[in-house]
Amino acid sequence: MKIFSSVNDVKDISALVGEALKLKKDPFAFQHLGKNKTLCLVFLNPSLRTRISTQKAALNLGMNVIVLNIDKEGWALELQDGAIMNGTTVEHIREAAGVMGEYSDIIGVRSFPGLKNRDEDYSENIFNKFVEFCKVPVVSLESATRHPLQSLADLVTIEELKIVSRPKVVLTWAPHIKPLPQAVPNSFAEWMCKADVDFIIAHPAGYELCADFTNGATITHNQDEAIRDADFIYVKNWSAYEPYGVVTSGNEHWMLTNEKLKQAPNAKVMHCLPVRRNLELSDEVLDGPQSVVIHEAGNRVWAAQAVLKQMLEAL
Ligand code: AN0
Ligand code: CP
Question: Which of 84, 98, 100, 146 has minimal Cβ neighbours within 10 Å of its Cβ?
Answer without folding.
Answer: 84
